[in-house]
Amino acid sequence: MIIYPAIDIMDGKCVRLQQGKFDQLKIYSNDPSEIAKKWEAEGARFLHVVDLNGAAAGRPVNLEAIEKLVRSVHIPVQIGGGIRNILSIEQMFDLGVKRVVLGTTVITSPELVAEACLNFGAQNIVAAVDAYQGKVSVSGWREKTSYKAIEIAQKLSLLGLKKLIYTDIASDGMLGGVNLKAVQNLIKSVDISVIVSGGVSTIDDIRKLKRFEEMGVEGIIVGKALYEGTITLKEAIEAGK
């Protein structure tokens, strides 16, 4: 199971939010590339990066910081946040990103998602299903929809996708534990690989998710717990083995 350290970028800095709220922000570093090198040195195999300004603006914003980060490490990077057209997807791959994460477009432009899988390879495109109380939120989590997360997830394989990131928004950045019931309901309903995000706060959370590996959970994104030191990356990687 892959542990993905999360690096959220806002205004060129590495930050963390609570439940995706831009007014509940804590800065951890003025240089996200230094954080990336730290996680690589501690054993990370893959990094999960989000352009928060991009998610809000609907287009990539922190290009300079993203390029510097990608070039600073030797491990692959997946990036999301405001990537909503083919040109933006190409732009990310040109910067050296390994995988592009599409969230809002899964709802607003499913045909774009299908086109991206055809053009760039399904293994290089990931869907983000971000849910609050079971319903999908888009545009940097600022807009709630009436779409049920499970129903959207079930349709992803029809678009050619092989992998999705599932985030429980209410748990994200709260250090209160993973919404295991929601994860279990989701993985029972889909036949594609799932990366779980939101709420990981202790090694026990990782051990609990590890039990779902044979059901399709292939990775876990860990953010605030690493930055606040409630778990170490080494411990997380060990628990995921």
Annotation keywords:
241 residues; alpha/beta; globular
Describe the structure.
There is one protein chain. The protein has 241 residues and is of the alpha/beta class. Helices cover 37% and strands 30% of the residues. The chain is built from eleven helices and twelve strands. It has helices at residues 32-41, 52-57, 63-72, 86-94, 104-108, 110-120, 149-156, 180-189, 203-210, 224-228, 233-240, and strands spanning 2-10, 13-18, 21-29, 47-51, 77-80, 99-102, 125-132, 135-138, 143-148, 163-168, 193-197, 217-222. Strands 1-4-5-6-7-10-11-12 form an eight-stranded parallel barrel, surrounded by eight helices. α1 runs parallel beside α3 (63-72) and α9 packs parallel to α11 (233-240). The longest helix has 11 residues, at 110-120. The model has no long low-confidence stretch (mean pLDDT 93).
In short:
The chain has 241 residues and is an alpha/beta fold. The protein has helices at residues 32-41, 52-57, 63-72, 86-94, 104-108, 110-120, 149-156, 180-189, 203-210, 224-228, 233-240, and strands at 2-10, 13-18, 21-29, 47-51, 77-80, 99-102, 125-132, 135-138, 143-148, 163-168, 193-197, 217-222.
